[in-house]
Amino acid sequence: MLQAGGLVGLLEPAYLALLALLAWGVWWGLRGEGARRAAPAPWRRRLATALRGALFLALILALAGLALPSTTLRATLFLLLDWSDSMGERGREAALTYARNLAAATAPSTSSGLLLFAAQSSLELEPQPRPTLPAPASQLDTHGTNIEQALQRAVASFPATGSRHLVLISDGNENQGQADAMRPLLRSLGIKLWSVPLTPAARDNDVFVSDIILPERLREGEPFAVKVLVVSQRAATGELLLLRDDLLAAQESVALHAGQNAFTFELSETAKGLHRFEASITVSDDPIVENNRLRRFVETSGAPRLLYVQEPDAAPAPLEHLLNAQGYATVRTHPATLPDSLSAYLGYDAIIFDNVSGFTISLAKMELIERYVRDTGGGFIMLGGERSFSAGGYYRTPIEDLLPVSMDVKSELTLPSIAMVLVIDKSGSMTSTIFGETKLDVAKVASFGAVELLNPADRVGVLAFDAKPQWIIPLTTARGRASIAEALGRLDAGGGTDLYQAMEEAFQVLEKEEAVIRHLLVLSDGLTDARDFEGLARRIKAARITVSTVAMGDDADVRLMHNLAAWTDGRSYFTNDPLTIPRIFTNETLLAARQLIIERRLPIRPESSHEVLAELPLGTLPAIDGYVLSFAKPTATHLLRVGENDPLLAIWQYGLGRSAAFTSDLRGRWSSELLRWPRLSQLAGQLLRWVQRPPSAGHLEASIATGREEAVLEVAAYDGSGRFLNDLRLTAVRSRVGSEPQELHLEQAAPGTYRASFPTPAEGEEIFTIQGVTAEVAEETAPPAGSDRAASRERQGSAAAVVGPRSIGYAVPYTREYLSGTANLALLRRLAEETGGALLDPGGDARAQAARLEGGGGWTATYQRLWRLLSLIALGLLLLDIAVRRVSLPERLASGWRRRGDQAAAAAHAPAEAPLDYDTLSQMIRARTRPAEEGERAPQPHGGGTAAAPRPWQVYMAGLRDRKERGQD
What we know:
Elements: E1 2-4, E2 8-10, H1 18-31, H2 33-38, H3 42-63, E3 66-72, E4 75-82, H4 88-105, E5 110-117, E6 121-129, H5 147-157, E7 163-170, H6 183-189, E8 192-197, E9 207-213, E10 217-219, E11 223-232, E12 236-244, E13 247-256, E14 259-268, E15 273-283, E16 293-301, E17 305-309, H7 318-325, E18 329-333, H8 342-345, E19 350-354, H9 363-376, E20 379-383, H10 398-402, E21 405-406, E22 418-425, E23 433-434, E24 437-438, H11 439-452, E25 459-465, E26 469-477, H12 481-489, H13 499-511, E27 517-524, H14 533-542, E28 546-552, H15 558-566, E29 572-575, H16 581-593, E30 597-598, E31 605-606, E32 627-628, E33 631-632, E34 637-642, E35 646-654, E36 657-662, H17 672-675, H18 680-691, E37 698-706, E38 710-719, E39 728-735, E40 742-750, E41 753-759, E42 764-774, H19 775-780, E43 802-812, H20 825-833, H21 846-855, E44 860-865, H22 867-886, H23 891-909, H24 918-929, H25 952-968
Parallel strand pairs: 4-5, 4-7, 7-8, 10-16, 17-18, 17-19, 19-20, 20-36, 22-25, 22-27, 27-28, 28-29
Antiparallel strand pairs: 1-2, 2-3, 3-44, 5-6, 9-11, 11-14, 12-13, 12-15, 15-16, 21-33, 23-24, 25-26, 30-32, 31-34, 34-35, 35-36, 37-38, 38-41, 39-40, 39-42, 40-41, 42-43
């Protein structure tokens, strides 16, 4: 920075180099042809050039940071308090006490602000003189320490004037960000940092699990050992537990000595898949319990394994027997007992849903299955039936997303007219909440979702009831969806419950309707007075009106609600999860308004040739007696069709995995002849082999090394002979519950070794699925831009070119907040000393330390930039320049300016002449008024040369001089 006598300053003087260019421009403007063309008149050219020069000079000075200096004695102090878990409650109290004492000891000219930080930062108090620091109220993620982000936030919050100081009160144990990266910025801004090191939370008696050692891969049934390492700061006794997939695998009372302790458990893994082991230690008087557990994953290989899902009341499935005969190991389960973690599905090569209702499967479990197929390469098959596909509540769910068929009826279909009344319980029991929403609010959403599925010409009404029925929406056409939504929004909960009166009211109104389909959908817990419900149901059925019921709540009268539906040939549902109600309403609307189940004898038509149908006598396929209506997705492959070109068997690639849909059943209701077809076993086997995880030509060994900021996934690739596989195109899909999957591209780092880095995750579990192809195949089968990230396996060529998939688990049970037991003095000292500050004693005198901080500031020079003023000057000069070059002057004024300009130019260029006397001028005038005689020469002026004709004013002035001289004589 340059100063001019202390009056002004230039904050960025390098821009003054543009003055040389400005000088050349002014010279060219005065002498160049361009200026003459812009302003031909000399006076305009000179004035325009001067204005432009001044304009650009103002802009150059603005760029150079022309500023007026000033000085101030004001100081701003930001107190940065570490609020992370590593500080502990005692450390947080000590930090806040120190900050309060220091702020109170500062001078009135010093303003103090408070900033709280852990994994994030929060500005608790703006700077003000001698504040009383409040108790922190912000809710921070205390599982991490990010000093860098706290410093950035504080720097951005400083005022523009005065000396600036940071007081960092922390143990210095950062595990996010890089505080050292802020040192150059702090130095350049003149900000001093003072470090106050505090000891982390006491860990003298801490006990924690440091590691679990077990094989990376196992064979099915192979015995193995699990070693658990426990570190203790003292001698103690405790209880050590070992869990396998959340089930107790071993338990032991252990005696701990100071230092590292090792305990070994002998186990035998019997099931294929990815298994999670968790070790936990319980010790009395342990100050930190967050680090008392640790997780590791191990993969077990074995024969192909299937998860076969069917209803609890269903008989053993014929398809399951066919697959067992082909060597597949099947594990039978029910919808309600499906696993609730992604790793639990990785032990299966495929999942089969056999006529399973979706209402007993939560959306969270459906999302896990969708991720199992899309992100880990698993297979999925859905078989039809009266409780499957759209009839089973899968419309607009993650399961529908992964299937090759859609469950929505296309608009071009002709739908029957329908009149439907939604009878909703609004008694006091509907005010209970689930996930922050009341049951009544969920019922409102479900009701509107049902209305959206109806045709505009269909008629719908909503009757709410407590002790009395109330028409929220009288029976009307479904096209007025906006008014229906507004009416539903005004629905409030009431008092008692009279279900009979509500159904009677809805029946009387619906009975008068002339629609083809008339339907009542009742939502209630059924807790009402005893009435003749059976008699009412008979009258409703006699009027050809159907009733479906939804019993909600663990205390619901399920029997009454079931009977109301059974007496009218309707359907009954039970749920204790209000979030399932919208799906039930959607399903009921689809079933009532659309013919989703087609039951008549229909032949099967092969659609295309495919490896699933290879070597099958398709001409001998028997007919079926029904199927669930669905619609083909554009990119799916449809192998068999039925009816009006509807899909019977469809397959497709979904992410890394595959799925198939068979819309008829395989239990005999619609497929009795197909079950007797001799080639059904071959068809089922070929379909399952196509859907399940593909065979791999090589082996992938994967491991993850964790750093503070970054983790590295390393994969070693081998062929069947143990040789390295080079030049592979490997990708890994990183999947975490609650987050979108991330795709990592692995680069080859050594023979057969590939690596990819990613940010070190916080607490939780992640699954990495690795798959690759040879470079040649990858180039030939690269998917087009914008397509799904996983190219179709048909495009990937032979199985010999495919490596993987291989899935590994990665768990972070707790952060590094619970590991370090000492303050990071090296970091705190670096930050302080390299920014002009120092380490401060947390137990020192607050007044002395405040004086030290303020004394280091002194008078601080600040500069007020003048760029706004200079910009306004430049704008004014620009307007004047335009006026000079473009604005025409009045003619009289312009001629006067031109005459004066011409005279001035003539005077400047004319040679010097001697004064002419009166006689000479008279002779010159007479000579110009008469023709000159031949040979006669005009009088010559003094100095020789040809004399120009005298002008009148010259004659006049010469006469005056002559008369003056004569008078003197």
